[in-house]
Structure formats: structure tokens, C-alpha cells
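By way of example, we now present a protein record of this kind:
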Amino acid sequence: MASPTSAHRQLERLQAEVEACRACPRLVEWTAGVAANPRAAYVGQRYWGRPVPAFGDPLATLAIVGLAPAAHGANRTGRMFTGDRSGDWLFRALWRAGYASQATSESRDDGLELTGAWVTAAVHCAPPANKPTTEERQACLGYLRRELQLLERVSVVVGLGQIACHAVTGLYGLRPRPKFGHLAEHALPDGRVLVCSYHPSQQNTFTGTLTEPMFDAVFERARALGA
């Protein structure tokens, strides 16, 4: 087992690799194009416009895997789930569960700190229509693999949405592919547990497919499992 300091440094180097990645030409072009044409509400703001690194506590016991940065959320702010409504839901829930120092996340320097939690994604670039291709998902999978290897204290992985959950189960080579469902649990070969959740997208939250009590139950379960 690597020392906490060594693992922390390796995680920092890994995130620097993520930021510099240009493996997927379609996503490189798309993220830069969005940054060059901001929404009216964000005119004058400097967009991140490149791969978004993961962030959180290097000693985390809980890893949260989303789908990908939002075009005008993390692709704008440079921090996962920051600056959009999905992030509003996530960080409120993490705050209520005791993983986050505050209930909001608006910018990379807003003072938010995570304790015991690490936030990442299956894909680190914002994809058109929130739909990365199979090849783009595969290109990013190595980053997730290395993150989970370095996050040695993680006992629970929460997957937000079907694509994120399938990225995790695919990473571990689970066959047949476990069924996705809200609060579905799957034992992973290294002793960790994957807890699945509906993604806190507006499509789910506006329709009531995902409610705040349902989302809170995910992180309550993570705590109960030891995260």
C-alpha cells in the first residue's frame, strides 16, 4: 500500500494527465467550441474548455462516478459537477450526508471541501448532447482504473446513472453485466461495493424520477456500508 503522501502526489499527477489529454478529437473540438460561444448568462466568463479533472479527499472512503462534465457546468468552471443543477443536487446531498463542507458549488475557488469523498466521471470531457461514444468512454476508462487503484481506502463506489455504473462494472470485468437500478448494489471483486443511483440530471429531477429523499438514501447507504 502506498503512503498517503505518495498516493496524493500520484493522484495529482494523474489529474494533470487528464487536463492535458487530447485523445478524442471530437471532444477536444466540442469543448473548445462551447468555451468560445458561452451562454448569454455566462458571457464574459472564461470557460475551462478542456478535460475536467476529478477532485476530493485523497483519503476518501467513497468514490462518486458521474457521466461527464456538463457543457456549461464543469466545462465552464473546471471542477466536476460545479456550476450546474446536477451539481446543486449532488453537493446538497453530500453536505447533508456529512461529506461536503457546504451545500453549494459555484466555482473552483468557492471554498468547498470534501471529506471522505472523491468525485470523478466516466468521461472527463463534455460530450455533445451528453452522449459520449463507446470509443470515447473506452479512451477515458484508464483514468478511472488508475484513480480507483490509488484511492486505496475507498470501500464504496456510487455510480450516477447507467453509463457510469456500466463503466465501473466493465472496469472490473463483471459478466454478465449487472442490472442497473436505483439503489441496486453489486459486489466488486476487490471487496468494494457499487451502489447505483439515478443521475441527478434535470430530466430525472424535474420529472420526479429522482427525489431528494431518494438521493439521500444513496449516501445513507454508502455510510452504512462503511464509506
